[in-house]
Amino acid sequence: MEIAGLVARFKGVLGDFRLDAEFSLPGRGVTALVGPSGAGKTTLLRCIAGLERLPGRLTVAGEAWQDARTFLPPHRRAVGYVFQEASLLPHLSVRGNLAYGFRRAPDARAARFDEVVESLGLGPLLDRAPLKLSGGERQRVAIGRALLTQPRLMLMDEPLAGLDAEAKAEILPYLVGLHDSLAIPMLYVSHDPAEVARIADRVLTMRAGQVEPGSPAQADLADSLVKALDRERLEQLAAAALKAGLG
User: Where is the ABC transporter domain (predicted)?
Assistant: First the structure.
């Protein structure tokens, strides 16, 4: 039996939002986290990263990051977190942004730096400023910076949502490459069925703060995701109809 890369259980209230989620991830591979807007996907990722604190437990590769006696702060969690916005440091070059992540790695080796630069096609960009990059290039740098910290878990919160079709087409092959090369789990939030079908091994669906059971195989993943998003659209249409007095 494969040892889970991540085991999580969070239950509590943040403001007026209630999270009650329990799930596990295998030791490697990409798990898509899907569901309607407001379901709690970003909140769940922030709890995993230690940016929000709710009662629960979290173990990664057998190490307790949170339980009844333990709560590792964000800077002590080996998480690579990529947001919808690249959030690069504007006063540093691409090389400087990558070095910022590299300095956090427990085993900083030049070979590792060169490997990440090559795998994401960042060599021609190293001396450029973030403001001189396209959206897809900025996200590639953000992914590289996260990888250079040598994380034990990757979290990606709709990293392609702010990109146009051309930029998405540019960066997707690199994400597919990460799927094939990463030896750690990745939790990937997206609303795009085609995007998820290309890179994910399984899918988890969130609704109203809860993770629904089930993890379809790759062959069924696209159909499962389309059904989940179709349900989301129907719910949005129903809500709009009620608001307009048509219900």
Answer: 1-233
